[in-house]
Each structure stands twice: as structure tokens, then as C-alpha cells.
Amino acid sequence: MTRRTVSLDRYTLAGLAAILLWSTSVAVVRSLTEKLGPYTAGAAVYLTAGVLFLAQLLGQARGIDSLRRLSRPYLFGCGALFVSYMIALYVAIGLAADRHQVLEIGLVNYLWPTLTILFSLLLLRQRAGLLLVPGTLLALAGVFLVLTQGQSVSWSSFTANVASRPVAYALALYAAVSWGLYSNLTRRWAGPESGSGVAVFVAATGLALLCLRLGTTEPTHWTARGVAEVAFLGGATALGYALWDLAMRKGDVVFVAACSYLTPLLSTLVACCYLRIMPGTSLAIGCLLIIAGSFLSWRSVAECPGPRSAASGKALSVAILEGSAKLGMETEDRTGRRDEDERRRVRDKELETKS
User: Is 154 helix (H, G, I), strand (E, B) or coil?
Assistant: First the structure.
């Protein structure tokens, strides 16, 4: 197993910047959904982000042409995972009976950093050591403490809520699985050199949430602050997903996924400031657990020889076969020339004897 080291190139830093952006946006989303409702807020944010993305594409020389060069598995497969993730998450939040259930749904959704690392073992040919198990458990325990903040969330109440709203919790679990798959398949299907389809994914998400909003009724109260929050979230969403997509295609996927365990912690800190909430002692304990778990999870995973190594091995095999064939042809040619020289000498000797 290769020992893993930190590779803080600009693509990995892009993933860390995306985590920071998403951490700042969570508190604003909470504030906005209280004014507009989850579907209206989601549609407004993602349509705004989609417009920003499409404007950027139109401003580029070959922006639209770059979309045509995207592979179909990435465009349709990752696109479906992206859109369905957001729809599942917003519908799960909308189906929650109260804020207590929203908290538990958030806990289920925050399984995605763990699943991203686990899926990388299968899809990106990573290898993991024994530290992955305690690292994952520590990080999940930290996420639990950070999100609950001293509130009573027991296993019995959790199972009772799941039984009362099974669709909401199933959608939250699907959201975690789909984002873990999206993060890994983006690297596998898109690759480091191709373009990005995030602009299309975000715009499609906005249209899908708009359709959900038109099919339901929820109280909305537009204010100047609400408009400002939509503008901020639209920009942060566009930039955050663009940076995340770049990190998943060209950066250190495992390191960024391990750092994403910090998202609930950072979002809670921002929420305490933005929403004027006093944090409890569980926040500090959760912080330490998340940091320790993230470090252990990252250190436990090492890279296997990827497609490039396999291609190199295949090229080497072909070169060996070609070299062997060429050597055989040259040997056969030299043997043929020796036989011809021997026959010529025999004929010359026979002619001399006759003379």
C-alpha cells in the first residue's frame, strides 16, 4: 500500500473552497426557507445559479461547444445523480413533520462523506487500511454531536420517526448515496481533461424544483433580505459546485472527501453567528471527533495503480510482443541468409569439380 501524502494543488484547494462556501450557505438556507418554504427557496436559488452558469458559458468562445464534447455517461449519469440528489433532499425536508425530524434527516444526509470514501474503494481503485473503520465511526459521532447540539435524539425516537415518515428518511438516505456516487463517477466518467456539465445540472435542478413548487402550496413571504439571500446563495451555489466538480475531476478525491466531514461543523459555527445561536459544549467535542475521524479516514486510504499504470503495462506488453516478433523475424531472416550462402558454396564447389 502506498503511503498517502497531502497534495494541496489548486484543484484540491478548489474542493476545500467549495466546502467553505457550502458551510456559509447552510445558515442562509435556513433563514431563506423560513420565509419562502423549501421548494420556492430551492427553485429560486438554483435557477439563479443556473442563469449565472449559462451566462458564463455564453461569454466563453467555445462554451456551448464544450457541452457537446462531454461523454454521455457523465452528462446523463452524473446529471441524473446531481438533480435527483437535490430533489430528494428538498422533498425529504419538505416531508419532515417538524424541525426535530429535519435535524435527523440532516444526519442521514451527512453520510455522504463516508460513502464518498467507501465508493472510491470500488470505483477509483483505492485501498483502505484498518484505520478507516475507527476514523469513520469517530467522524460520524462528531457529526451527530455537532448537529444535535444537546438536543434529545435517541435511537428509539429516531426509529419511531422513520416509521412515521419512511419516505422522508429513505429520500435522505438516497441523497447521501447519490452524492457519494456522483463525486466518484464524475472523476471516472468525465476525467481530468474534459469539460464540466455542472451548468446544465444546476439549471435542470432549478427547473425540477420549480415544477415541484408549482405542484404544491407553501406560504411565501418575499422581503429585501430574502432577495439578497437568494442572490448570495445563487452565486455561492454556482461557484461551490463548479469548484467541487473541478476537485473531483483533477484533485485529491479522498483528501477532499475527508475534509468534507468538517462541513456540518463549519456550517454550525456560521449558523451560530448568522442566526445568533449560542453553541453548546457538544460543539467542541464534536469538532475534535470530526478532525480525528477525518484524519484517520484520509490516512487509511492509499491509491492503487490506476488506468494510467494499466495502460502503461499494456503498452509495455505490446512493445515486448512487437520486439519479440521483430527479433524472431530478424533471426529467421539471418538463418535464411546462412542457408542460402551454404547452398551457393555447395554449387560453386560442384562447378569447380566438374571443371
Answer: coil
For the cut 80, the answer to whether the pLDDT of residue 144 exceeds it is no
Model confidence, pTM: 0.70
Helices and strands (H, E) in the chain, number of each type? 16, 2
Given this model, what pLDDT does residue 45 score? 93
Distance CA 106, CA 147 (A): 8
Residue 13's alpha-carbon distances to 9, 224, 303, 317, in angstroms, are 6, 34, 19, 38
Cell of 254: 479522498
CA dihedral 273, 275, 281, 285 (to 10 degrees): -70
Compute the distance between CA of residue 254 and CA of residue 260 in angstroms, rounded to an integer.
Answer: 10
Give 55 or 103, the one with higher predicted confidence.
55
Name the residue ranges covered by the structural domains of the chain. Answer: 10-304, 307-355
207-215 long-range contacts, Cβ below 8 Å, gap at least 24? 207/47, 207/50, 208/83, 208/86, 208/87, 209/39, 209/42, 209/43, 209/46, 209/86, 209/87, 209/90, 210/43, 210/47, 212/39, 212/43, 212/87, 212/90, 212/91, 213/37, 213/39, 213/40, 213/43
The grid coordinates listed for 45 are 436559488
Calpha distance 128→116 (Å, rounded): 13
Asked if residues 54 and 301 have their Cβ atoms less than 8 Å apart, the reply is: no
Selection from 268, 237, 252, 234 nearest residue 82 by Cα: 237
